Amino acid sequence: MAAGGTDPQPVDHLTGWPAEDKRNEERSLALKIVIVGNGKVGFSLAEQLVREKYDVVIVDLREDTLRRAADALDIMSVKGNGISAATLIEAGAPDADLLVAATNSDEINMVCCLTAKHLGAKYAIARIRNPEYNTGLSDLKRNMGIDMVINPENATAVEISRLLRFPPAANIETFCRGRVELIGFRLLEEDFLVNRPLHALSDQVKQLSLLFCAVERPGGEVVIPNGAFVPQAGDKLYLIGRPSSLDQFFRLLGRYSPKVKSVFIVGGGKISLYLSAVLEKMKMRVKIVEIQKDRCRFISERLPHTTVICGDGTDQELLESERMTASDAFVALTDRDEDNLILSLYAMQKGVQKVVTKSNRQNYAGIAQTIGLDSVISPKLITAAQILQVVRGMQNSQGSVMNTLYRIADGSAEAMEFTASANTRNLGVPLKELRLRKGILIAVLARGGDIIIPEGSSSIQEGDSVILISRDLRILDLNDIYEDEGAFPVQGGSNEH
Questions:
Q1: For residue 345, what is the enclosing H or E element?
Q2: I need a surface site. Which of 60, 90, 337, 445 has the fewest CB within 10 A?
Q3: What is the pTM for the complete model shown?
Q4: What is the CATH number of domain 31-150?
Q5: Are the CB atoms for 246 and 183 separated by under 8 Å?
Q6: For residue 493, is pLDDT > 70?
Q7: Closest Cα to residue 260, out of 180, 194, 330?
C-alpha cells in the first residue's frame, strides 16, 4: 500500500510556488507559538517547530541560551521572566495560538500559563514534573487555565516500563488504547529474516496479524518495505500488529525471553521515582543506586518496596557487590548521558538481558547503535512529540482527529493514529485504487473490536482508527496522504523499494 506516482506537481500561477507548498506554508504561518524556557525540552521543541515552519518565539532569562537559539534556529527571542505580563506581551502571547511553559519550575510554568490565558493566548501547555501535583491535576488545570499538562519524566517512565514488559523490543509504541503495538528490533546474522525477501517468508509468519512497516538501515536510510524488500543483518525493523501476534513472531524468531523480574537502576531522579512506582505495581523487584543521601532517604520513604543503595553508580566495584549482573534488566538514568552510555555498555557486556539508556543528545544515537545499544530513550523528544500532536490537531480542527503521534527510526519517520471522519476523502474506496504519496503506508485499520492489517481490497470507513507510517512528511490529516491535490509535498527523496 505504499504507493506513489510521478505526475508533475501543480504550480500556483500567481506565486510560482508549487500549489501544495503554498498550502503547507499557509497552514504553518497560521499558528503563532510562544515557548517559555529554553532548556532541553524548550530548545528541542523549538527546533522541531521551526523545521515545520511555525512562527516561534522563545522566552528565557538567560542571554546565552537565547543567543544559542537565535544562532541555531534563526528565531525571535525575548529576554525576561515568563510570569511577567510585560515579557509575555513583548513575546506576542496575546495573539499566540499556543504557549508552552517549559521552565525548570512547575510553579513558574503554572503562573505563566495563567497570565498568558488572561492576556489572550488561545491554548496553554505547562510542564509539571513534581509527583505531588499529580493528585490534583484536574483542579489545577481548571483553576489555572491550563489546557494540557506534560510530564516528561512520567512519560519516559511509561516508555521504559513497556520495554521492560517486552525485552526483545528496542522500542515499543502503542495505539488504539493498547490493542495495537509497533515494535522496533535489530536483525542479527542468525535471524531467518536475513537475506530473504519478505514475500518469501513462511506461511507460519504470514498468517500472523502483523505488518513489516518500516526499516532503518545502518547508514540512516529509512525504507517503507514492500514484499520484494530483502532485510539485512544490522537493519532495524519495525513491526506493527496485535500484541499477541507480535509475541508469537518473536517466539518464532527465537528472541522470546522470560519476563523481567528484577531491575537495576542507576540514578535516583524523577524518572526513577515514576518508573519504580510502575515496576512495583508490575511485581518487579527494583534496586536503585543513588549518590545523594537525602535523595536516597526520600526515595526510600516514597517507595517502601524498592531497595535503595546510597553510592556511586559509576563505581564498578559497587555494581559488582550489589550483583548488578544478576538482574534481568539494567536502566541507566543518571544526569550525564556519557555515564549512561558507558554504564549501559558495561551492563550489556556483562550479559544483562535487557539494557535501557536515557540520552537527550541526538548525536549520541549513532554511537549507541554502533556499540549495540538500541533501547535509548530521550525525554525531550517524547515531550516534543506530545506537543507536536497538539499543534497539528489545532491546525486541523475540522478534519480527521489525530489521536497519537510517535517519532520512529531516529526521528526520520512518524507513526500516527487518526480517526476517520465524514470529511475524510475516499471512504469506502479500495486501497488498491488509491494513489498514496511516496513514503506513506496505511498500516492498520481498527474498526470496532477488529484489528485489520489492510490488503488491496480493504477500505477506510467513517469512524475507523487509521494508523499510518509516514517518512519525511508532515501529515495533519488523513486527506494529506494522497498524491492528488490536497496533499502535502514530499520532503526529500524516496527510499522506497
A1: helix 337-349
A2: 90
A3: 0.83
A4: 3.40.50.720
A5: yes
A6: no
A7: 330
Q: What is the DSSP string of 82-101?
A: TT-HHHHHHHTGGG-SEEEE
In the prediction, which pLDDT does 7 show? 39
Tell me the mean pLDDT in the region 166-180.
93
The DSSP string of 187-253 is: --TTSTTTTS-GGGS-HHHHTSSEEEEEEE-TTS-EE---TT----TT-EEEEEE-HHHHHHHHHHH
d(CA 357, CA 337): 8
Q: Which long-range contacts (CB under 8 A, 24 or more apart) does 287-294 make?
A: 287/262, 287/263, 287/322, 287/327, 289/264, 289/265, 289/313, 289/318, 289/319, 289/322, 292/268
Class of domain 383-481: alpha beta
CATH architecture of the domain covering 262-352 = 3-Layer(aba) Sandwich (3.40)
The share of the chain scoring above pLDDT 70, in percent, equals: 90
Please state the length of the chain: 497
Contacts of 340 by beta carbon, 8 Å cutoff, 6+ apart = 267, 332, 333, 334, 357, 358, 359
Going by pLDDT thresholds of 50, 70 and 90, the confidence category of residue 388 is confident
Q: Which of 141-145, 154-158, 170-174, 326-330 has the lowest mean pLDDT?
A: 141-145
Predicted pLDDT at 257: 78
- Helix, strand, coil percentages (3-state) for the chain, rounded to 5, are 35, 25, 40
pLDDT digits (tens, 9 = 90+) for 7-34: 344 443 333 334 444 444 444 446 899 9
Residue 475 CA to its chain's centroid (Å): 15
Place of cell 556511586: 312
For 167-178, what is the mean pLDDT? 92
Q: Where are the beta strands (DSSP E) in 317-449?
A: 329-332, 354-358, 376-377, 401-408, 413-419, 440-447
255-270 tens-digit pLDDT: 877 889 999 999 999 9
For 105, residues 6+ apart whose C-beta sits below 8 A from its C-beta are: none
Which residues, listed in sequence order, are joined to residue 182 by a DSSP beta bridge?
173, 240
Cell of 476: 495533519
Strands across the sheet with 98-101, in order?
76-79, 55-60, 32-36, 98-101, 124-127, 148-150
> Residue 395 corresponds to which amino acid?
Q
The whole-angstrom distance between residue 371's C-alpha and the CA centroid of its chain comes to: 22
CB atoms under 10 Å from CB of 270, counted, come to 18
- Given the candidates 3.30.70.1450, 3.40.50.740, 1.10.1740.10, 3.30.2380.10, the CATH classification of the domain at 172-253 is 3.30.70.1450
Q: What is the pLDDT of residue 243?
A: 93
